[in-house]
Amino acid sequence: MGALAVQTFELGVRFGDFQALYGVNLAISPGSFVAIVGPNGAGKSTLLKVLLGLDPGNLRDGEARLTGKAEVFGQAPKALPPGWVGYVPQVKSFDRSFPALALEVVVSGLRRAWPFRIAPREREVAMAALEQVGAAHLAGRRLGRLSGGELQRVYLARSLVRRPRLLMLDEPATGVDAVGEADLYRHLEAYQQQSGATVLMITHDWEAASHHASHVLLLNRTVIAYDLPAVALCHECLSRAFGHVGHAHSAPVIR
Ligand SMILES: Nc1ncnc2c1ncn2[C@@H]1O[C@H](COP(=O)(O)OP(=O)(O)OP(=O)(O)O)[C@@H](O)[C@H]1O
């Protein structure tokens, strides 16, 4: 296969007169587990949206402009075969009022359309994905009756159901308790070991990043550091990304 999982060349995104990202040059090898760390408004979600092939101009009102180039497995994100990329959005963006069952949500990831009738084979594949994230018992539950952590697992199962080569997660551990967070990493690492997939995960938890990620991308509108966690999370890099690194955050555990 040979191609890098993700490569960007002087990537920039501008919303009106606000430059959200500039000069982003990345080369991420297949099989990496990358934690994307940076302050609020650093452009982390914007970067993931570009890699998902979404047009940043369509995200909100106003003019947006993309410059430079992004490639996923050597191709423009929009040109990738369906199923190569999985995405788990932030829990807060999930619509729980939608009257659906967890199983239906997972099958919708398989079909990319709402499953009014679920075929036996689809049920089998979706149940396997739910089992993979320890959520088979949630299959028949309505979304509105799931906790934040349970909902997170259902969407993780949905993102895994087509066995993506690149999995992107936007703050998956937010609102999830410590056990749920440990489970999340366990499931991600197990999937990665089986499949060799590349994982990009936005997180505000430096400690978890330093424990679980193979690499850390420290971002503040441009790349501050992309390196092994112990290097990218050094005090100087964090100060450059966050400004003053005060006592509000626990110091990262450097192994
Ligand atoms: N569609 C849009 N229109 C205008 N501005 C936008 C749009 N999308 C993002 N922005 C702005 O771009 C900047 C980067 O946003 P983004 O959501 O990528 O940051 P983030 O690093 O993910 O932040 P957080 O940690 O708070 O989730 C922010 O200042 C945001 O307000």
UniProtKB/TrEMBL annotation:
First-tier enzyme category under EC: hydrolase
Annotated InterPro entries: AAA+_ATPase, ABC_transporter-like_ATP-bd, Metal_Ion_Import_ABC, P-loop_NTPase
Documented EC number(s): 3.6.3.-
Keyword Nucleotide-binding applies: yes
SUPFAM superfamilies: P-loop containing nucleoside triphosphate hydrolases
Residue stretches making up the ABC transporter domain: 6-246
UniProt keyword annotations, A-Z: ATP-binding, Hydrolase, Nucleotide-binding, Transport
GO terms for MF: ATP binding; ATP hydrolysis activity
CDD domains with a match to the protein in the record: ABC_Metallic_Cations
A matching Pfam family: ABC_tran
Entry similarity comment: Belongs to the ABC transporter superfamily.
Name of protein: Zinc import ATP-binding protein ZnuC
